[in-house]
Write a structure and sequence with these properties.
Blueprint lengths: L1 H13 L4 H4 L5 E3 L1 H4 L5 E3 L7 H10 L16 H16 L3 H30 E2 L2 E3 H4 L4 H14 L7 H13 L6 E4 L3 E6 L2 E6 L11 E3 L6 E4 L4 E8 L3 E2 H5 L3 E4 L6 E2 L8 E2 H7 L4 H4 L4 E4 L2 E5 L3 E2 L11 E8 L3
Antiparallel strand pairs: 1-2, 3-4, 4-7, 5-6, 6-7, 8-12, 9-10, 10-18, 11-18, 12-15, 13-14, 15-16, 16-17
């Protein structure tokens, strides 16, 4: 009701909230976490009615209700406002609830404009799933902060504090072009690679704890490797590993250990995996989680790069090409 709205606005003001917080409660909004369904809407049809008016209605119609005794506990911030501050405001400023509600409506209008501007700036700065930092730099600091908040919202990331956001913006924009910058958020990691900004999941496990896994292929179309967070596909192709040769090999999947080299085609030189990753513009943090498949000492496949040509054959017979798909990709 109206008094709840006034309390909400005042609480948010006491917390130093921005426009979104000062918007208070919407008449209708989605609440997927609470309702368990993104399609359902929560309505507040009594938002314009004062508490005293509702109390009179309940009394007149003898409507039964439950009074939560915790509402009297002034250790809670809302109750402290309700029992200590709101009566004083009502005495000094009669009708303040309506004015607070009007402030909330003004804030809601401003927030809608910020969302609209954020959507436009995101469309302008988005490069695939990341942000083009050259386009971001063309915006003012306030618009960059609004863009980042909007981007976080579209990715389901909780809103950071103003101070945290300002510090992150400074690091992203001022870092050297070749810096491997990573800013940690409670829900994700914000990284910069060359002229792009990425939001990546927080992965806490130590890759050094992931041990090599030996396996044999028996004709499966795919094999899931949970510890490597992905699926290895075996696809029929005109050029690839001979099927019978592959069946007879002891294979191993592992992460890079350093010093591995790969020749992608007969007419191309053998180069280090680092060289190939850089040439393909694969960020350093992604390289760490791209597994290799080998047979003995021979590297057969590097995820993100492809097959090594030394065991690739063509012509008659069945051939297999390997393909890696990370979980969630």
């Amino acid at each position: 009701h109206l008094d709840d709205q006034a309390e909400t606005v005042l609480l948010q003001l006491m917390r130093g909230s921005g426009v979104a917080g000062l918007s208070g409660m919407d008449t209708v909004n989605a609440a997927p976490d609470l309702l368990g369904d993104a399609r359902s809407l929560m309505g507040r049809p009594l938002l314009a009615i004062k508490r005293t008016e509702l109390a009179d209605l309940v009394a007149d119609r003898a409507i039964c209700y439950v009074d939560d005794e915790s509402n009297l506990d002034t250790r809670y911030a809302r109750n402290a406002l309700r029992h200590g501050v709101m009566p004083a405001l009502a005495e000094a400023f009669p009708g303040f609830q309506q004015r607070f509600a009007r402030t909330a409506r003004h804030a809601q209008s401003a927030q809608r404009l910020l969302i609209e501007l954020g959507a436009q700036d995101l469309a302008r700065c988005l490069d695939g799933v990341c942000l083009d930092i050259r386009r971001v730099r063309q915006l003012s600091s306030d618009r960059i902060d609004n863009l980042l908040r909007y981007w976080f919202g579209t990715r389901g990331v909780r809103m950071p504090s103003t101070a945290w956001l300002s510090e992150m913006r400074a690091q992203l924009l001022e870092a050297k072009a070749d810096a491997q910058l990573c800013v940690t958020h409670a829900d994700c990691q914000i990284r910069r690679h060359r002229d792009r900004i990425f939001l990546t999941p927080r992965l806490e496990e130590n890759l050094a704890d992931v041990l090599p896994r030996n396996f044999r292929w028996s004709g499966e179309e795919q094999m899931h490797f949970a510890e490597y967070r992905g699926v290895l596909f075996f696809e029929m192709a005109e050029q690839g590993l001979d099927v019978e040769w592959l069946r007879g090999r002891d294979l191993q999947i592992n992460y890079r250990q350093g010093g591995e080299r790969l020749k992608p085609a007969p007419n191309r030189p053998t180069k280090s995996l680092k060289y190939h990753y850089q040439a393909l513009d694969i960020p350093a943090w992604e390289r760490e989680r791209l597994p290799l498949v080998s047979a003995g000492k021979d590297l057969l496949f590097a995820a993100g790069i492809g097959m090594d040509c030394h065991h690739v054959a063509a012509g008659t017979g069945l051939h297999i090409r390997l393909h890696w798909q990370a979980a969630g990709a």
